[in-house]
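Late entry, evening session. Most of the bench is empty. Finally got around to the prediction I had been postponing all week. Sequence below, unchanged from the version circulated by S.P.
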Amino acid sequence: MKANVRAANAKDLGPLAGLCAEVQAWHAATYPAYFQPNPLEAELADYFAAKLGEDGTHIFLSEFLSEDAGSPAGYLFCRVIDRQPGLFHRARRRLLIEHVGVAAAHRRQGHATALFAAAKELAQREDCHDLSLDTWEANAAAQAFFEGQGFTQQRRLYAKAL
């Protein structure tokens, strides 16, 4: 079956919150000093409801066109960023992928690939120079996927606990 990608809407807040909660659980378990454990799905739904109304912000959902239609398997939340020129850098328009997640039961079935294709199409329509995202060092599976999609590492962030 082929994954179908569509724009999220207010009716999708519950499933979207559930998908995000799964991603958040991995982050909280892997990096407990940085991430809140077990956010309430109602709070996540409120967060995404606010994001749906922001200019330049887009949320895509992926699902199969079958008897499971209406049950999103993955999501991608992104926004267009316009960087003005400055003393040290050039003007740049990019599509920043803020969140991406596919439910564990639906991984390796084409959902993330379909979501990234939708993000690329959006970036091209919006005249973006590039797509960008960041990922945590421990997320080797995500890094391998991103590299397979043609992303290259551009910089590193270092931190030192005090």
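Two things to note before I forget:
The mean pLDDT is 92.
The longest strand covers residues 92-102.
Will write this up properly tomorrow.
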